[in-house]
Amino acid sequence: MSDTPVKQQSTAAFYGQAVASFAVALAATAIGIFNLQTDSWVRAFLGIAVLYLVTSAFTLAKVIRDRQEAGQLVNRVDQARLEKLLAEHDPLQKL
């Protein structure tokens, strides 16, 4: 009873949509910051803030993914141990 989980992979369309959405959002923010009617140091500060936000979002997504994958690995090891114990157990064996 060893079920190998099917690795879920996103479609090319979903991947393309995610990349396009990210590019449009980043470009719109950059254009908005560039066209602000304010000092250049304020625009530079906002640009750095956006870059920091983007890198933080990527890091957070990676950490969440890594924790989920680690949890799946632990669950698979626990399931294998349980299956081994059940396979070795003989209820008719005399004590």
UniProtKB/TrEMBL annotation:
Residues 14-66 form the YiaAB two helix domain. The chain crosses the membrane at residues 12-34, 40-61. It comes from the Bacteria. Keywords: Membrane, Transmembrane, Transmembrane helix. Pfam families: YiaAB. InterPro entries: YiaA-like, YiaAB. This is YiaAB two helix domain-containing protein. It comes from Streptomyces composti.
